[in-house]
Amino acid sequence: MLSRVADSLYWLGRNMERAENNSRVLSTQLIHMLEATDEQALNRDWEEVIEICASIEDYYERYGRIDRDTVIQYLSISPLNMNSFMNCMIYARENAKATRDIIPEELWEVLNEFYLDQKEWQEQPSTRQHTERYLKNVTNTSMTAQGVIESSMSRDLPYTFLKVGKWLERGEKISRILNVFCEKNRKDPQSSNNTYYYWLTALQYTNGYDAYLKKYPPTMESEKVLNFLIKEPTFPRSIRYCINHVKEAIDRIEDGKISHYSADLFDMIERIQVEIEDTEIESMDMEELMQFLDHFQDRCLTLSRMFSETYYLVEPARVK
Prior knowledge:
By secondary structure, this protein is mostly helical. The protein has helices at about 5-35, 40, 45-55, 55-65, 70-75, 85-95, 105-125, 130-150, 155-185, 190-205, 210-215, 220-230, 240-255, 265-280, 285-315. It is globular and about 55 Å long. The model is unreliable at about 315-320 (pLDDT under 50).
């Protein structure tokens, strides 16, 4: 398989996952706005939302201050934000276009239809209701595309590169979300109402609320939420689950063998797995958990770079 094709498939998986994850975060925040009882609650968490979905430094450099309407526009349809939902879906369509002879035709049709409809969405008034419908459309498009992939793609190299992109993106996003809420909890450890709100929001951001309540009804304790989103081996949006599936995908690429060019990559994945499994969340304070999550994000960046070097740069013309 050509390395440029593998690259497009990898980023197709990442861009679809990024658009869906970010749209869930903003959608949850808009729901919290509707439930707000005062102006302070109405303006809560917008800086954290930017930090999760984009770059807070880039936002402040462009706009200087937090404004709800500006943040919503910046995260959803701004061409200036490379992580806006609009840009992520455009990039995903471009990745799909470059691989049309490999991916299912229905996958291309789903992404292309969203792209064509998006032009009309941009011309409509930027109301909250319009934004909510747009976010739902982003989420539904990503989920439909994932359904097409799971139901109609052979489990060969193209499928595997898509999956690596998806699981790496998801694992990194979960760690960013948890890091933000660990920081908020560290700053306000005494307020039980705020603590409940923080971890409820973290579960909603990660689409894990329903699954968590089935396992831990009806508690909302920080240790249990963190254990669930970091170490739960059966929940598809836990960090452990994501890394395990990255490992399985790379095993499939290598046909169960470790070659000289992939040895460092396998070593890095196994080290990350051991670090996750050995982490005793119950014995860690918020400062230590933040250090662990910062470290994991650095590991994800390193893993992504090593994966790219192993399969795109070691053999520039073709993937091994």
